[in-house]
């Protein structure tokens, strides 16, 4: 049997163990980004900072990811994928552990920026890394499984690390995650296959991709969807307090997580066949959940169900947009997903800062209104984008 034929047949069998390990990387990646959200009041008190400064602990991380994703992914294209991933995991670990040991807000922000730079390279790279291990008809499935770590991080990881932070302090939370990342890096050394990099050409450059109309549509949908979700999620503690929700932030995150898990499983199964329907449904469920918050406030049962609906909407967010942009190109999928990833992270910063300013003038109920204003256009565009999301 020839080497090429053996490689082709190996791609027919979906590599679940490898994909789950890659999913663990995205799991710690999203936790590194969002951890401050669950313990924001505690960090604000400890570091003596304002709510806007607290939001910047997430916002600056995101803007670093957005700014550095495209140039660094392009620069590291020739690098071996496994070695590059191990370097990024080391960056995540150091930025979290050291931040947990320091008391300077400025230095912690710098460490958050370092973590954001690592994330900016990791998100698009690992998706393309996984796609190179399977056949084209399994690309959507590979992305869904790998990006499941993002959803699991929010649905399961965030409640756990928030509990650790509230019980043992936010510093313990950061250090514990850093140590876990080091353990994960050791597993990657032994389990992940070594894959060579690719040569960047003019036809596969970021500027060439930005001339493709379908890519621009995906980027617009990314901008709308991410801004809508994260503008509310980063300040979820403030929303829960305003609603006076029974069960508090832990209960809200649990319901949100259950909904995310359900939609994640659906995304793994159906993304390759029903990308457009899932994208429309994502925007629609987001709008409905926000309307319920506005109309019914903290009404027990109804508001809890709204957190569940919001989770259903949030679960496939990363998967859908990365799958959509990867469908538009044949080669250099790392670059395509880096453009999408950069677009994904930039609105996190904008939404975080914008929502923080709104909270300075209005009650937290202004956040669902902002989300609706962004979700409705996203739903309409997704419905009309038949060719792009086919």
Automatic annotation (TrEMBL):
Keywords: Cell membrane, Membrane, Transmembrane, Transmembrane helix
Presence of keyword DNA-binding: no
Transmembrane segments: 12-31, 58-76, 83-103, 109-130, 142-162, 174-195, 215-236, 248-268, 275-296, 302-321, 342-359, 365-385
Cellular location(s): Cell membrane
Gene Ontology CC annotation, any one: plasma membrane
Keyword Cell membrane: yes
Protein topology in the membrane: Multi-pass membrane protein
SUPFAM superfamilies the UniProt entry points to: MFS general substrate transporter (SSF103473)
Major facilitator superfamily (MFS) profile domain boundaries: 17-389
Record-level Gene Ontology MF annotations: transmembrane transporter activity
Name assigned to this protein: MFS transporter
Species this protein is from: Adhaeribacter soli
């Amino acid at each position: 049997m020839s080497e090429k034929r053996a490689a082709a047949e190996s791609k027919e069998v979906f590599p679940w163990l490898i994909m789950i390990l890659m999913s663990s990387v995205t799991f710690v990646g999203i936790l590194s980004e969002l951890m401050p959200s669950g313990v924001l009041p505690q960090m604000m008190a400890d570091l003596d900072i304002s709510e806007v400064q607290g939001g910047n602990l997430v916002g600056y991380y995101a803007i670093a990811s957005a700014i550095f994703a495209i140039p660094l992914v392009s620069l590291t294209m020739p690098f071996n994928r496994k070695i590059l991933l191990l370097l990024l995991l080391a960056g995540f670990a150091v930025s979290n552990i050291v931040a947990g040991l320091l008391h300077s807000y400025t230095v912690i922000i710098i460490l958050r920026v370092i973590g954001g730079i690592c994330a900016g390279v990791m998100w698009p790279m690992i998706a393309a890394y996984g796609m190179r291990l399977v056949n084209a008809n399994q690309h959507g499935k590979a992305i869904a499984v790998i990006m499941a770590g993002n959803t699991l991080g929010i649905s399961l990881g965030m409640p756990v690390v928030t509990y650790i932070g509230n019980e043992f302090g936010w510093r313990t939370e950061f250090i514990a995650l850093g140590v876990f990342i080091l353990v994960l890096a050791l597993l990657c050394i032994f389990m992940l296959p070594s894959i060579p990099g690719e040569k960047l050409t003019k036809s596969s450059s970021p500027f060439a991709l930005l001339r493709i109309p379908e890519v621009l549509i995906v980027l617009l949908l990314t901008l709308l969807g991410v801004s809508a979700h994260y503008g509310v999620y980063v300040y979820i503690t403030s929303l829960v307090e305003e609603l006076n929700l029974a069960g508090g932030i832990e209960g809200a995150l649990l319901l949100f997580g259950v909904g995310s898990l359900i939609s994640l499983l659906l995304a793994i199964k159906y993304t390759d066949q029903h990308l457009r329907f899932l994208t429309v449904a994502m925007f629609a469920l987001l709008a409905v959940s926000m309307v319920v918050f506005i109309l019914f406030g903290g009404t027990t049962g109804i508001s809890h169900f709204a957190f569940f609906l919001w989770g259903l909407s949030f679960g496939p967010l990363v998967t859908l947009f990365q799958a959509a942009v990867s469908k538009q190109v044949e080669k250099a999928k790392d670059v395509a997903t880096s453009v999408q990833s950069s677009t994904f992270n930039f609105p996190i910063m904008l939404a975080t800062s914008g929502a923080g300013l709104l909270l300075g003038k209005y009650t937290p109920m202004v956040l669902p209104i902002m989300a609706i204003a962004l979700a409705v256009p996203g739903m309409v565009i997704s419905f009309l984008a038949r060719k792009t999301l086919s």
